[in-house]
Amino acid sequence: MIDCAVIPAGGRGSRVTAKRKDRNLIKVLLPIDGKPVLQENIEIVRDRLGIRRIIIIIGHHGDEVQKFLGDGEPFGVRIEYLYTDVDKGLVEALLLAEPHVRGHFVLLLSDGFYLNCNHETLLPLDYATIDGVVTYIHHYSHEDISSSFSINLAPNGNRVSYLVEKPQTVNNDMLGLGTFVLSKEIFEYFRNVHVNERTGNREFIDAISFFAQERHVIGHMLTGLYVNINTTDDWHFAQFLARRHVFDETRKSLVIPTYNENESILFVLNNFHECVDEIVVADGGSSDGTVEKVEGFRDRCACALILLRGPFRGYGDALRQGVEASTGHIVTFVEADATFRSQDLSKMYEYIKDCDMVLGTRTTRQMICQGANMNGWLRFGNVLAAKGIEFLWWFNGEPRITDVGCTYRTFWRNRYEEIKHNFVGQGPEFSPEMMIEFIRNNKRVIEIPVSYFRRVSGESKHSRGILGVSKTAWRMLVLTLRKRFSRAFGTVYP
Fold first, then answer.
1. What is the pLDDT of residues 355-367, one digit of tens each?
2. Within 13 A of 33's CA, how many CA atoms are on the CB side?
3. Which of 18-32, 264-278, 368-382: highest mean pLDDT?
């Protein structure tokens, strides 16, 4: 019978914060598919193992962890908190749990991400005859095993012979996981474990290894996918796995701002409607028949079609209102003038699995089609402005962008929702503002080249002639500088 679960969640996560340069980052609250990894693990304990009593050991940013979880009632569990000095290490932290454990308990390290792992197979084991269980998965990468711990089993059986923390030599394909079932006797081994000569620390895995050599500890294979989140790259990979797993079922929306686009809107709708689950047309007061064509397309549209009527205060306002009216978990922007095509959408969808927003760029010369409105000076201006944003927010993940005016972009709604209160741009300045807010709030942004076509008809509202380009560039520049420097002059600008 398993008494409770113990989850240590007090580490600094310094290898995650080092790359992101965000010292207030809390590793156990990093979101994966919109849910903190600590919550994911609590739900494994609750749903897969049927455990409702959880002891969480907190230290670094412990107040934030406790604020998020509370007493556990919103998550259907009862949480007890223990406080540790983060500098004393994991072994000392786990010893705090000894008075609170009555028998066998699940120990779940909080920095492990599990996808479709079958933890419920731990329940039928005979704990009357077992002192401990160490879990593992078969894994092809020796590098991953060497950064975690290796398991060595006795010949012709599942009994654990010994474990090695961060092995220099890997002799099998068993990757040790952060899930254990241990009897109360383990605490004696925690007290007596010696400093590891190779690492210079009292290693938790060494204690489990000595425990296995003297007690009956078995290895138990789990299935599914596992990521030990030690670095930012590990976190990104975990997010990619989670997003890829549900991507086909994820609802996808397309937002198209329109204003007198009657000659091109049907082309765009026909081009995209079979690629998404929903199209939102945000019309700013067209008087040329655009609205009637959109409404007439509804009966043959392969997806849901929402017509949102303005007037809006500008291009940026139309896009923001379109996002609010949409229902997709993934949202894409395109123009109504047919300068962008659905052939690039699959590329965006592939990259969005691995980041928070994918930006299109029209500055790749080989992908600028004949007749497109992207001459050398316009391309140069976009690149120059983009590099200015890179420089101003260089310490926010060192962004790489080349185009500030490209509407074609795809993003996760939940990441957008976290920062939408900062948006103030109503016109074309919203395009770089959105990029800035994602970057300065440490979202992962990737730019990819997209094909840029000649407009089906008419002229751009924002890059028509030198005067139009100048006005748009000025609005973008003013907003960018305000975003970067307003606090330096004693003012607050979102």
1. 999 999 999 999 9
2. 16
3. 264-278
